[in-house]
Design a protein that fits this description.
Layout (H helix, E strand, L loop, with lengths): L1 H4 L5 E4 L6 H31 L6 H27 L6 E3 H34 L4 H4 L2 H24 L10 E2 L6 H6 L6 H28 L8 E4 L6 H31 L6 H27 L6 E3 H34 L4 H4 L2 H24 L10 E2 L6 H5 L7 H34 L4 H30 L8 H24 L2 H16 L1
Parallel strand pairs: 1-3, 4-6
Antiparallel strand pairs: 1-2, 4-5
Helix pairs in contact: 2-3, 3-4, 4-6, 4-8, 8-13, 9-10, 9-17, 9-18, 10-11, 10-17, 11-13, 11-15, 11-16, 15-16, 16-17
Length: 527
Amino acid sequence: MGLANETMVTEFILIGLSKYPRAQTIFFLFLLVVYLTSFLGNGLIIMLIIVDPRLHTPMYFFLCALSSIDIALISNTVPEVLVNCFIYRPTISFYRCLSQMYIGLLLVSTECVLLALMAYDRFVAICQPLHYMKIMSWKFCLCLVAASVGFPFLITLINALLRPTDFCGQNVINHFACELESFLKLACSDIHASELFMQAASISILIPPFGFIVENVMAAENETVVTDFILIGLSEYPRAQAVCFWFLLIAYLISVLGNGLIILLSIKDPDLHTPMYFFLCVLSSLDLILTNNVLPNILVNCFIYMPTISFFGCLLQMYIGLLVVATECIILAIMAYDRLVAICQPLYYMQIMSWRVCIALVAVSVTLCFLYTVATALLRPTDFCGRHIINHFACELQSFLKLACSDTRISELFMQISSLFLLIPPFGFIVVTYGRIGLAVLRIRSAQGRKKAFSTCSSHLVVVSVFYGTIMVMYLSPQGKSVSEKDKLISLAYGALTPMLNPLIYSLRNKDVKGAFWKLVGRKISE
């Protein structure tokens, strides 16, 4: 539909300062000086860091990455802007405009995250100088830079997928170069999803890194050095550990193989290229991340008495788990809405649940949960008074907060309020949605149609019941001063049981998934 309705625009006219010829000359000289200084200065920094072995440290590694981004950023637009200063109403091709815009967006977003990483590097160097090279190892630095590029790349890709497709012949950009806001103003198609995502992405790219930088500067004086934590788990019950190991191993294998199979089938089989299976693929991806975030470590720790985890490994495990669980809460609500539209408005289903809407819903849910996770990270305690024993299988937020001897009232209040917002509204939405679905299904005259509708929705309801039930008991019930054995088992239920149940429920009870599986098996055998 998008290709059919797209108004052909092959190039754009860049106005810049065309109306002010004298100002253009001054502007040209200013930009030329800036360009040469930036290019030569950043190039010199990169060369010195590579050539001089004394500069082969994490600090200069990040500085080299920053200089590389600055060279790429300034080379992306400034040379063309300099040339355009001598052209009346200069033009740029449609695809060059897109590449210039999205490369710039990627580089600026990456630089925001990279500056926060540089602040963290200085924080570790000042607060934990003896452990600096251990914490900021080369592997860890490379992972940080890769992650700082990966997240902005995802945001840039989603922005590109949500770009407007119809310009009604408008091709005059009131700017020196192609810039996202100016580009969107030309569109005559609906750009609400693009603007909403751009605002949410801007908040997630600007506020958290800036807050992180401020927190690292403020916390540098008060941080008590804790390099690792001891995880108790079931260390006091050796026999229970053996049972726990076999249960978790089975859950882990079923979860990885089952969710991996669902993702493979959803991608491979054209019959499963529908919004329902797109969301199921996203859910399976989240379950894979959640399972691999903690279970491999727990399985290894079952054979170690009082196992340890590094301070930053603990933070990483805790906040990745928090992000994934929060995102899954919203995705389950989106899946309920998808079923509501499919059953109550089947004729308009693909129009309402278009691919652009589906991608926007997932992107917004991930962005909101990312902001929540970053806010939680910024409010984490900074002083532990040497306490480093976590009474749990893995790093979990409530257990982590109980170790702090600094004031955690703001962190706990934020956790309680955010838990209410992340659990009650999505769960309430799901209950109301399935109430409406139930009424709609009862009005279906065909017995086969009613059976198919109930089969699809019952699978989703089982997953929702297990997932929300365990999390609500965990986060909405009154908390004691210490973690009980019941709390540990409940956290295992949503961390291991739910990811295992999802593929079993959706594959064994779903004819489309089973059909896609046997079709794939038959194709492989015939080959």
